[in-house]
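Below is the record:
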Amino acid sequence: MGFFAMGSPAVLGGPHSAKHMLHHLSNTGEPLDIDVDALMGDLPDMNRNVEAQPAENAPNWEAQALAEYERTGKPVKYVQQTGWQGWTAEKDPDWYHAVGSFHYNTVAQVEVDVVPGPDGEPKTTIRYQTHVYDRYNWDANKATPVPPMGNVSDAQMARLHQPGQAKEYDMGGQSEVRTWNG
């Protein structure tokens, strides 16, 4: 298949997979930004998981921030994170062919304000942002279904890298900042 046909959204499943393949074939090895908000919008299960994390972690995060507030009596900005977790974009063919499996981490800033909330208690706000990272590479022992071509072995794609026809690259990005109100 020719260079342009391989990068066709019709072949790879959509604009993200085409963009990532064309970047691979551009042979620069430069990092590529991922639109994390678009990724999460197209992967609703991942988005629900990300949105659940502040609620799951809020009691512990708030307790730590409130303890610091009580100790100092001053506004507190406390940074927390969920740790890197793996995800596979198997439910969206475009993202599956663009990133396959990747890692994400949610970083939250927990703020306690000295001005109390309506209930007279310190006001706590959690703002969070999700970061995504992956390496666009091909593993010799895997294969990827590419309609209408069938299964394309990762070893075949890796061979493009060896003579300098394509370069693997890092990719990542972050979502917009979201606010969680418990």
